[in-house]
Specification:
Radius of gyration: 25 Å
Distance between the termini: 59 Å
Strand content: 25-35%
Mean pLDDT: 87
Structural class: alpha/beta
Largest sheet: 5 strands, mixed
Number of strands: 14
Length: 307
């Protein structure tokens, strides 16, 4: 059995969702496609697909084998291209994920510039505020904000952000500026319902983290809504510096309680280790890292923070 060929057939069946569709794409007889998958299952001693008259689905073993097969086939293709000197410049599709607000403000312009510089590369940019499993979702690069817990990833830090408390000048003139976190209980605060800080905000006091209760009159489900509400004088809001920077620079928001800032938060590119880095990914990181670092540094300037 040609195992690599069988893996290619299995991947096509799994990703198209059927033997017939895979046979059409591969230009193989339907019987050949079915036989190769059966031979692969026999060789592995595991059922990869569950077949019914209506649908085809991956078993748990099949899902794991699909991830591994994609990785092996991608590495093999990359090695063949490099060995034959056919990979002079990056080509293909680069998959990237980033947080929604940060991705729209800062990664999208960088991707635009990259596409203009590398016309043979396509980019699939996914915005998500949850941590995406890069291997499971077949994503080449993730942009992460915060401390990285997954040691299986290679990380390249492009700068640091800070947590800030903001209010509009009109609100602060009316309600006063809090001198300490204890004073927040007397202020109107804007809370995000998907946040862990719904009833209190965390500050670094004497080198230790401490939560202080807040009094919220407005609960929203998105950062954009929280920022808009603060700009419209509805109260104080707890943000990351990149979320506030444009509004602070324009004088629509002011920072308070600067003496109680948490430690800086890293912004990093992350990608899987233990495999050859595709040329398209290496080129993107080399291209994007200095641009992102400039943007993160400018955020600190706009917020009046120390770089």
């Amino acid at each position: 059995m040609d195992q690599l060929n069988a893996m290619r057939v299995f991947v096509e069946v799994a990703e198209t969702g059927g033997f017939s569709a895979a046979a059409r794409i591969l230009k193989l007889p339907l019987s050949t496609v079915s036989r190769k998958v059966s031979e692969l299952e026999e060789h592995l001693g595991a059922q990869l697909l569950t077949r019914t008259t209506r649908r085809l689905s991956l078993t748990e073993s099949g899902h794991r084998f699909l991830v591994a097969s994609n990785r092996i086939l991608e590495d093999l293709s990359e090695a063949e291209q490099q060995a034959s000197d056919e990979f002079i410049k990056p080509t293909g599709t680069l998959s990237i994920t980033a947080p929604v607000f940060f991705g729209r403000l800062h990664m999208l312009p960088i991707v635009h510039a990259f596409l203009n510089a590398y016309p043979d590369v396509k980019v699939r940019l996914t915005f998500a505020d949850h941590v995406v499993d890069l291997l499971e979702q077949h994503i080449d690069l993730g942009v992460r904000i915060g401390k990285l817990a997954d040691s299986s990833m290679i990380a390249k830090t492009a700068g640091y952000l800070e947590r800030v408390i903001c209010g509009s000048p009109e609100y602060l003139q009316k309600m006063g500026t809090p001198d300490t976190p204890d004073g927040l209980i007397k202020h109107h605060c804007i809370s995000m319902q998907n946040s862990t800080s719904l009833n209190g905000w965390k500050f670094s006091v004497g080198g230790e983290d401490k939560y202080y209760p807040i009094s919220s009159r407005l609960f929203v489900t998105s950062t954009e809504a929280a920022v808009d509400s603060a700009v419209n004088h509805m109260g104080l809001v707890h943000l990351l510096s990149y979320q506030a920077a444009d509004y602070v620079r324009q004088g629509q928001l002011e920072l308070v309680l600067r003496g109680y800032a948490d430690p800086p938060i890293p912004v990093s590119f992350v990608y899987p280790q233990g495999r050859m880095i595709p040329v398209k990914l290496r080129n993107f990181i080399d291209f994007a890292e200095p641009l992102l670092r400039q943007r993160v540094d400018q955020i600190a300037v706009d917020c009046g923070l120390t770089i």
